[in-house]
């Protein structure tokens, strides 16, 4: 039973790593999209609603896919409001 659980954990960790890589690629696309949008808006006075919508879609995908990778690598932001006020015993 333990070996099955370890095998399942390895598979899920690999999947989470792949999702993290996918999120990093999406982040690069988001940066390129925002750069393009800013250049077109301020240098050429051309606004694209579609590119602005794509920014929101890319951002939401990065957030939703990146959460599993952040939790796996302990990279998420913690708010230890409760823990810092408790004694070690509690």
Helix content: over 70%
Count of individual helical segments: 3
Which value, in Å, is the CA radius of gyration? 20 Å
* pLDDT averaged residue by residue: 87
| Low-pLDDT residue intervals, each spanning 5 or more residues | none
Main sheet characteristics = none
Number of DSSP-assigned strands: 0
- The secondary-structure class comes to mainly alpha
Share in β-strands: under 5%
> Can you write the helix and strand succession as a string?
HHH
What's the quaternary structure here?
Answer: single chain
Task: Note the overall shape.
Answer: flat
Q: Report how far apart the termini are.
A: 33 Å
Structural features, described:
By secondary structure, the chain is mainly alpha-helical. It has 3 helices and no strands. 1% of the residues are buried.
Topology:
Elements: H1 2-44, H2 49-72, H3 81-85
Helix pairs in contact: 1-2
Q: How would you sum up this structure in a few lines?
A:
The protein has 90 residues and is mostly helical. The protein has helices at 2-44, 49-72, 81-85. The mean pLDDT is 87.
């Amino acid at each position: 039973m333990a070996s099955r659980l370890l095998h399942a954990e390895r598979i899920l960790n690999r999947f989470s790593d792949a999702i993290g890589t996918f999120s990093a690629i999406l982040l690069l696309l988001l940066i390129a999209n925002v750069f393009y949008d800013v250049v077109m808006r301020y240098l050429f006075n051309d606004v694209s609603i579609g590119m602005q919508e794509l920014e929101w879609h890319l951002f939401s995908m990065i957030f939703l896919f990146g959460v599993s990778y952040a939790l796996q690598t302990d990279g998420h932001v913690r708010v230890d409001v409760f823990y810092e006020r408790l004694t070690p015993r509690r």
